[in-house]
Amino acid sequence: MTPVVRMQLRIMLCAVASLMAVGWAAENAEKAEATRTEIQVMLDEASQVGGTVTLAPGEYVIQRSLALRNATLTGPGATIRAVNSEAAGAYLMGIRMGSGSVLRDISLVGEGPRCVPVQISGGSRKVQLRHVTITGGTILIDANAPEVNDILIEGCDLYKGGYGVLLDNQCSGANVRIVGCHFKGNRSDSIELNFPHKEKGLFVRNVVIADSIFEGTGPDPNSGTSGFAVGMAGAHQVQITGNTFYKIAVQGVHLEDDTEYVTVSGNNFEECGMGCTTGNWSGGVHVLSGTKFVTVTGNNFTRCRYGVSGLQGNTLRDITVVGNTFRDCPRGAWFMEYPRGVFQGNILENCGVGLELWRSRRWIVTGNSISAEHQQHSGRGCALRPSQQGLVRPAFHPPRQSDPPRNKPAQWRARPGRLSSRSPWQPGARAQMAGGLIPPPRLSNSPSRREYYSI
Q1: Burial classification of residue 178, based on how many CB atoms lie within 10 Å of its CB (0-12 exposed, 13-18 middle, 19 or more buried)
Q2: SS3 of 167, please?
Q3: pLDDT tens-digit map of 274-298
Q4: Which residues contact 241 (CB under 8 A, 6 or more apart)?
Q5: What DSSP designation does 205 have?
Q6: Which three-class secondary structure state does DSSP give residue 47?
Q7: What are phi and psi for residue 305, nearest 5 degrees?
Q8: N or C terminus of the chain with fewer C-beta within 10 Å?
Q9: Computed from CA positions of residues 187, 188, 189, 190, in that sequence, does the dihedral angle turn out positive or negative?
């Protein structure tokens, strides 16, 4: 094999103390442009051989974009401050990253309106951001471009932006990994995967979000701009594992618009959605609008308004909630019009309501454990008692004239349902609550539409 020669250019630049972004004046613009030009020349030279440009500790102010391609830009102790003036009408992209680019061990600051510290360009492959601190900006890392592939964002601190990482409606590609990062104080979604044109092939496959911390997303929980720690629309093949979600204003993980094949596993959700008073279903994981094939397993939900919730009609299906722990949540799990699901082997401690299924057919509910310090009441006629081994809380329709009288439970008895490996979605035999049979939710006046659940 022909040996590959990689020359590393280690270029030490002196920071200019007078080029501070704070209180910037017109006379400093020329110095900022000179600094940007000097860095860009070095990056262009390094890109010819896949080299490295190393900045000396200090601050570097730029007012136009730097282009990074097939090269590495690094600088422990160095800060690049991208400043977009109030008069500028266009977006400023601080560093435009192309194929083969690496940004590591450096700090970036975005200042001014419409400022994006990092943009990943369309058609880019093998782009890495490693141990980078980014503070401020409309979007901290923008990848709203077609055919972005093999993107790694590792060990980065992403603070006080609008969006943290945005893959938006023009984005397509595969293999995006966000690992070991810290998101704090972002106003909108810390990570947004938004693919409204999925039918045109505009979406990103195989996304991994792992071992990261999401803290304080959405500082005002009742404002229109407050978002989620991780928001998805039309995403495909996503793993969210080993993360911590702490004091998220609205929802830790939000799935909608035909998102498919998502696994949420081994995460900690704490105090999510507790400050939001303007909308329902805030909390840990929320699923709606055609999302299907979702697995929520091995997570801890502590003091979340809702642990797991889902709603909106027959386009939702196939969710598995297995082996999670819900502690001190007003609602453990709640689903409305969500056909076909599994709620199995979960632990619910001191939750106001453990599980509520509202007009949700063909669910398997089995092997769950509920405990509480005292008896709590669901508000709809079903008491949660510590002695119960599991809970289905049916949500009743108002009685109709054609409904069987509820003082005759024998009319609600049906043939036991079978739970087999061949047909995992068959309903169980009955719901045992408060020592007796509770009628399941009525889906129609037809006796053949009655549903029963297995505990």
Answers
A1: buried
A2: strand
A3: 877 666 678 999 998 788 899 999 9
A4: 208, 209, 210, 211, 263, 264, 265, 266, 267
A5: E
A6: helix
A7: -60, -50
A8: N
A9: negative
